[in-house]
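This section describes the prediction task in plain terms. A model, or a person checking by hand, is given the sequence of a single protein chain and must write out its three-dimensional structure as a string of tokens. No templates, partner chains or ligands are provided. The sample shown here is typical of the held-out split.
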Amino acid sequence: MEKSWPAVDYEVGREKIREFVEAVQERHAIHIDPKAARKAGFRDLVAPPMFAVVYTHRSLWPAIEDPEVGIDLSKMLHVGQDFRWSAPVCAGDVITTETELADVQEGRKKATYTFESRAHNDRGDETVHATWTMMVLGG
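The expected answer:
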């Protein structure tokens, strides 16, 4: 079953980067100080790589919750994720993420759903290609 959902936009703000950086206790200056980020050659504050979860989940959840996909959330386990990062994400970027259901493997007591998300900045550069694996336990 291949299925995709409408793209979702996310505008990256300095304060969102700062909140994320505080939560994960990141200390590198390019994530905290715009001047340090520009001195290092970036447009503005740089989001840490795992910030990808912040802007991609808005595209992933409609896919997981789609009744046509048929995932029972009460029996779902998030069993894996893989990220391939490309262009850095900076404050002021608008990131567009698209998610598709890439694969479903059904067994007797479980089903495994693989979703792929691709995100691009407003200049057309890919920022991350994410693969999400969910297992749904059967009865």
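For orientation: Helices lie at 14-24, 34-39, 52-65.
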